[in-house]
Amino acid sequence: MHHHSHKSPLPRYYQLKEIMREKIISGAWKPGDLIPSERELGEQYGISRMTARQAITELVNEGMFYREQGKGTFVSRHKITQQLIRLTGFTEDISARGQAPATRVLNVTMIPADENVAEHLRIRVGLPVLRLQRLRLADDEPLAVERSHLYFIGCEQLVDDDLEHQSLYRLLEAKYGIQLIQAEQELEAGLTNEEDSKLLHLPIGSPALYTRRTTYTNRDQPIEYARSIYSGSKYTFYTHMMRNQLVL
Ligand code: 16G
User: Fold this and answer.
1) Among the atoms of ligand 1, which is closest to the Cα of residue 166?
2) Is 91 close to ligand 1, i.e. is its CB under 6 Å away?
3) Percent over 70 (pLDDT), the chain
């Protein structure tokens, strides 16, 4: 196995599962791709076919793979994974899944920061911030509603930028020369309200994932505070965690 040492106490099927999961997340394996057979995986990683089968079966059960009788096992399309390790934006996440990201700008305007926004952006209440509301789609299917507030010197210029065909993160980095370094994010389960249900083409009260993200620049200044609603049946948040002792 490449990822873990031989002394690693993690079971082998589990290690293979994580290796295959990384292949999907990194985009090396794309939705619809046929994955190697149990025998091929066994040979490649020096494990038994049984062990390879167990890893595959668990990923089938998690919805990452699906089996087709007589054809093999394929990478699923329906779940979009947002990495919780690297700071990535919507466009990057969807592209990594081999799908086409798209954006509909619902609203973009300068407004005075309310208390909540001011606190998250660490600015004075009432300072003008850019409010951007976007519907995000993958392969023409609505996935998320994102409501962002941004503050930086010159942020009002964003009102005139083409935010339907460009990634916000890329714009900030390439046009405004802002280095995005890190973010904090919270996740919470909830149900869709009337407005979001309409936008996401879901019945009112559908399961949803609510996220709040504050993104920081290289100067440790919060630049964006975003609240998003993800369609619960279409989105997976993935995180890979290691216990300290294992890597020592
Ligand atoms: C993510 C972020 C959002 C950010 C966007 C940039 C959350 C809560 N949302 O969707 O804050 O604006 O990525 O994506 O995770 P973009 O570069 O494709 O515009």
Assistant:
1) 19
2) yes
3) 90
Angle between helices 12-25 and 38-45 (to 10 degrees): 100
Q: How confident is the model over 199-232, as pLDDT tens digits? A: 999 999 999 999 999 999 987 899 999 999 999 8
Q: How far apart are alpha carbons 134 and 233 in whole angstroms?
A: 20
CA–centroid distance, 128 to ligand 1, in Å, is 21
Distance 90 CA to ligand 1 centre (A): 5
Tell me if 146 CB under 6 Å of ligand 1.
Answer: yes
CB 210 within 8 A of CB 185: no
Which pLDDT score is estimated for 245?
Answer: 47
The encoded tokens of residue 8 equal 């690693």
Q: What is the 3-state secondary structure (H, E, C) of 150-212?
A: ECCCCHHHHHHCCCCCCCHHHHHHHCCCCCEEEEEEEEEEEECCHHHHHHHCCCCCCEEEEEE
- Residue matched to tokens 């407004």: 111
**What's the pTM?**
0.69
Which residue has its alpha carbon closest to ligand 1 atom 13? 89
* Per-residue pLDDT tens digits for 55-65: 999 888 777 88
Residue reference for tokens 């990594």: 96
Name the burial class of residue 220, with classes exposed (0-12), middle (13-18) and buried (19+) by CB atoms within 10 angstroms of its CB. exposed
